[in-house]
Amino acid sequence: MAVTIRSNWASDLLINYVTTEIRTLEPDLYFAGVGVRKDVPKGFDQLVFPQTNQIASSSVSTISEGQDPSAVTWGSSSYKGGPTQEGLVIQVSDLLVRNSAVEVITAGTRQVRDALLRSIDNLIQTTVNAGTNVLYAGGKASRSALGSGDIADITLAVRGVRNLRNANSAGLKPFGGKYYVAIVDPSTEADLMLNSTTGAWIDVGRYSSVDDMKAGKLGDFRGVRYMSSANVQTFSSTVTVHPITIVGQESFGWGYFQVPTPEIVMTPDSYNPLNVFQSIGAKATLGVTRFEEFRIQRIEAAVSA
């Protein structure tokens, strides 16, 4: 990953530190971590994922001796995403840098990294959560019908897993052949943990997931591995609507057109002739695309106070 530093005192240590901080985005990218990544080489302006079409079992026929079965037309669908560039620059006064350079550069770089991280995950989840395969809490039929008492429960999650397993006659494969992944925010996670119906998390956890209960996390439960992130986008409606996004293998794709690239400017230019501030920033360009609609199951609900 290229790093641009215009400075009369930049050291290898500074360059390595900034590069390392920006590079370590992906372990904290919740949505990116469960998608299929394919970076786009230079010279291309589209992220393209060809997905082969499923052959129906009804296409298989009995073979008469010495006679070939009828040929079936087969191919693939193409899912595409265009480039979107995200970036951020912060300015730090020269006096602050002079008085505590290491601390300031460290803190500033980490804040830029975290802001870019949230921005990338926001861009991905906006596309992922734009689908129409939705279950609504409280038995409601639309987002606008949700009320304050329509909170998520484990029944909805079980139905979501059922739908993914039944999808497209072959079913959507879970990760590692075992778990689907659900991304939830802490408020929704709390509602699921507090649900007291028979067979809910609190009922099962006391016998099989004591460590998860002590840690206060859902963990792996009823075919789903739950990941909690405070950076989950909500929807505005009659009430604030919180999504649970459940995915399996190859539910959506994303990739970089330009990998996260840091830049530090610490010398004067026409914009900053007296060099009264230094700039720390980073940018990235990526594309995102959903695959077939059945591959992403979203649950929408209100949350308890």
General description of the model:
- It is a single chain.
- By secondary structure, this protein is of the alpha/beta class.
- It has 2 domains: 4-52 and 78-128 and 254-290, Major capsid protein gp5 fold; 138-251 and 294-301, hypothetical protein PF0899 fold (2-Layer Sandwich).
- The chain contains 8 helices and 13 strands.
- Helix 1 (12-23) packs parallel to helix 4.
- The radius of gyration is 24 Å and the shape is globular.
The CATH class of the largest domain is: Alpha Beta
Please state the average pLDDT score: 84
Number of domains: 2
> Which percent range fits the helix content?
25-40%
Q: What's the gyration radius in Å? A: 24 Å
Specify the oligomeric state: single chain
Helical segment count: 8
The coarse overall form would be globular
**How does the helix and strand content classify structurally?**
alpha/beta
Main sheet makeup: 6 strands, mixed
What is the number of beta strands? 13
Provide keyphrases for this structure.
alpha/beta, 305 residues, Major capsid protein gp5 fold, globular, 8 helices, 2 domains, hypothetical protein PF0899 fold, six-stranded mixed beta sheet, five-stranded mixed beta sheet
Quick recap:
By secondary structure, this protein is an alpha/beta fold.
How would you summarize the topology of this molecule?
Elements lengths: L3 E3 L5 H12 L6 H4 L2 E2 L9 E6 L23 E6 L2 E10 H6 L1 H28 L5 E3 L17 H13 L13 E5 L1 H9 L6 H8 L1 H6 L4 E2 L2 E5 L13 E6 L4 E14 L11 E14 L5 E6 L4
Parallel strand pairs: 1-11, 2-11, 6-13, 7-9
Antiparallel strand pairs: 3-4, 5-12, 7-10, 8-9, 10-13, 11-12
Helix pairs in contact: 1-4
